[in-house]
Automatic annotation (TrEMBL):
The keyword Transmembrane helix applies. This is HD family phosphohydrolase. The keyword Transmembrane applies. Residues 479-636 form the HD/PDEase domain. Keywords: Membrane, Transmembrane, Transmembrane helix. The chain crosses the membrane at residues 16-34, 271-292, 304-323, 330-346, 352-375, 396-417, 429-450. It comes from Olivibacter jilunii.
Length: 696
């Protein structure tokens, strides 16, 4: 569990007033944005049993058509609307006159004999007259969906007649006709030349009128009825225990929409607001009770509480905004972003609790609320489970893929249950889930923003801090290589122990890597960095040596603040020695000055003592690892005795009394430390004959 930076005064002045004021403000803001019309009180699904009392029509209402029925009507209407073409009667005269005006010049330019010019001119004139009398049409691709030919309306001098494209020429078929006529004329010698000439004067005279056609289509679509039949007042719609088949579902759906439409006009908004205030207030209260019972640290911290309420309120405002915009699908909303943010910033239980409460509130205002709740709860649970232990950044992407698959499987299952046919699956319905999961990736920058604004240390930040290539750890490995190796070993010991007893492994590893950074100031004064034959303490008094050793804590805190390390990491630096003594220099002083009164505080670390499991585990791991280096014969017995001596000493000195750690957990830590140290020093454990037989 991450600890956080100093609490600003805005949160600490009158904390109780601020806390409950935030709760009330959140409830008010949520209620302001939520839809205000009364809600249809029945829950139903196609293919399920009607679990309510008999539903009697309270008034007359029309039965709405299903989307498939409206789509079929639309297709039928579109088939009945013919495209409109204008007959440009002047095209025949214009093209014929242009031909006659240009023909003589082209004839002479080709070097033909003058006596044949009249024959050629007459032939082309007759061809053009026939083609334009029959008509040349410019086809429109969108009306060629069911074959090459289609019906159309031809407007000639405001008179409309129905025709088919098979009855007229296209430019290609007109040119083919002209070529065939020219080929049939044995008197024409320059056929190829004449064929190339005719094509220049064949243009469509039946021209598509897009504006008028679109107008006719729009009018036809607007005239499509969205209803089919009526339900009379007092008529039984569905009886208790009956199956909600397609017909019943459509009647109930039509009643719901009629009810909500009427409620917009006649419903009492004030009464609705009171109901919303009660429901939302209850949910926020349940959240506060959960925090008080299971996360008192968050409940007591108004800064963290305000973050949680901000996230929940923000998501419900987005939902309300989407309802008012009437999005085609509410599944575009990235609901899973909330449990991911809460999981990364806090823990799994809190993330799941908040997500469930938020979905419950949303269910009052969305259509098909059970379906919505099922999809969002399952996806939210998967999003939480998939990042239970965040180790790598790509887990966000992996989690997104798993969430998307969950949406797909759950939604496909719902459709199959509801419709009973895989043919009815509209694959476009899966697009909102893809968009939603894509938007869920915004959790990553939002987590960073919340960390900065509210002073929280998330697993993402801890993951970055544990990278040994960070500037501060690189500096430690260069200036104090022995201390760096010691820190790595402590990190391994502490991480293994915290995994065993339960806790934030990333946090304790990060704390272990940085707990001794203060030794970089005077690395040669610490034994792990000293070379043989030289000890700088030889020229100092015992008090001076003790103060240099003790000062690595305060210097480490200063360095951590300078490099802007989170307060949760600084807590490990501050507490890893607690209020223990530098016993070596203390005992040496007493031995050297038996008659002198000793000020014990000179030899004692300032503290405080560890306050959590993580800081307690680090203290024990630090002491055990450091002491293990002094063992001359690291066998199983010596290592076991050393671990017991170190941990018993911490317990006897009261260093673990504030860390909320049990004796059972301490015993588990002993076993972990002993096993890992034996592995480090390659100690072979001797088994007696009985144990060997049991293993065999």
């Amino acid at each position: 569990m991450s600890k956080n930076r100093r609490t600003p005064s805005v949160y600490s002045n009158n904390p109780a007033v601020f806390k409950y004021g935030m709760m009330v403000l959140s409830v008010i803001v949520i209620c302001i944005f939520l839809p205000k019309q009364p809600r249809f009180r029945f829950e139903y699904e196609k293919g399920k049993i009607w679990m309510h009392e008999d539903l009697i029509a309270p008034y007359n209402f029309a039965i709405l058509k299903t989307p498939n029925e409206i789509r079929a009507d639309r297709e039928q209407v579109l088939e009945s609307v013919y495209p409109v073409y204008d007959n440009h009667t002047e095209t025949k005269g214009e093209e014929t006159e242009r031909f006659l005006a240009e023909f003589e010049g082209k004839w002479k330019g080709s070097g033909q004999e003058d006596r044949e010019m009249g024959l050629y001119s007459q032939t082309v004139t007759q061809i053009l007259a026939h083609i334009y009398d029959r008509g040349v049409i410019g086809l429109t691709k969108k009306f060629q969906t069911k074959g090459e030919h289609y019906n159309f309306n031809l407007v000639t001098n405001n008179i409309t007649e129905k025709k088919n494209t098979a009855e007229v020429y296209t430019r290609e078929t007109a040119l083919a006709y002209a070529n065939s006529i020219i080929d049939s004329k044995s008197s024409i010698t320059e056929k190829d030349w004449l064929k190339s000439l005719v094509g220049d004067y064949i243009q469509p005279n039946y021209v598509y009128n897009e504006r008028l056609t679109d107008k006719l289509i729009a009018e036809a679509i607007n005239n499509i009825s969205t209803t089919r039949g009526m339900v009379q007042r007092g008529e039984l719609i569905v009886a208790n225990g009956s199956m909600v088949n397609n017909e019943v579902f459509q009647k109930v759906e039509s009643l719901r929409m009629a009810y909500e439409e009427e409620a917009k006009i006649g419903g009492d908004r004030n009464v609705v607001v009171i109901g919303q205030f009660l429901v939302v207030g209850l949910v926020v209260t349940l959240l506060m009770v959960f925090l008080y019972l299971f996360r008192i640290d968050v409940f007591s911290n108004n800064r963290l509480l305000s973050l949680i309420l901000l996230v929940v309120t923000g998501m419900l405002i987005v939902l309300s905004w989407s309802l008012k915009l009437k999005l085609s699908s509410l599944y575009y909303i990235p609901f899973c972003i909330v449990p991911i943010i809460v999981r990364i910033l806090f823990d799994t239980r809190l993330a799941l609790n908040i997500h469930l409460l938020m979905v419950l509130v949303s269910g009052f205002f969305v259509p098909n609320s059970f379906e919505f709740a099922f999809l969002q709860v399952t996806a939210g649970m998967v999003s939480i489970y998939s990042i239970k232990t965040l180790i790598k950044r790509e887990q966000f992407l992996i989690s997104s893929v798993i969430i998307l698959l969950t949406y797909f499987v759950a939604y496909l299952g719902i459709i199959l249950i509801r419709d009973g046919s895989i043919e009815d699956v509209g694959y476009a319905s899966f697009v909102p889930f893809i968009v939603s999961v894509g938007l869920t990736l915004l959790a990553y920058p939002l987590i960073y923003a919340f960390e900065r604004l509210f002073g929280i240390t998330s697993d993402v930040t801890l993951m970055e801090l544990t990278n040994t290539n960070s500037s501060l750890l690189r500096e430690l490995s260069y200036k104090a290589p022995g201390t760096f190796q010691h820190s790595l070993q402590v990190a391994n010991l502490a991480e293994a122990a915290i995994y065993k007893i339960g806790g934030n492994a990333l946090l304790v590893r990060a704390g272990a890597l940085y707990h001794d950074i203060g030794k970089m100031q005077n690395p040669q004064y610490f034994i792990e960095n000293q070379t043989k034959g030289y000890n700088p303490h030889d020229g100092l008094t015992f008090e001076q040596s003790a103060q240099i050793i003790i000062s690595h804590v305060s210097k480490g805190i200063d360095m951590a603040h300078k490099h802007q390390l989170p307060e949760s990491i600084i807590s490990f630096i501050r507490t890893h020695h607690g209020t223990t003594r530098t016993d070596y220099f203390y005992n040496a002083f007493i031995k050297a000055h038996p008659d002198k009164i000793v000020d014990e505080q000179v030899f004692r670390y300032p503290g405080p003592i560890p306050f959590s499991k993580e800081t307690a585990v680090l203290m024990m791991a630090d002491s055990v690892e450091a002491a293990s280096r002094s063992i001359k014969e690291p066998d199983a017995e010596n290592i076991s005795n050393l671990v017991d001596k170190i941990i018993d000493g911490k317990l006897a000195q009261g260093q673990l009394r504030n860390s909320n750690i049990t004796l059972q957990e301490v015993e588990a830590i002993r076993a972990i430390f002993k096993r890992m140290l034996m592995s480090i020093y390659h100690v072979r454990v001797d088994y007696d004959v009985k144990k060997t037989r049991e293993v065999e």
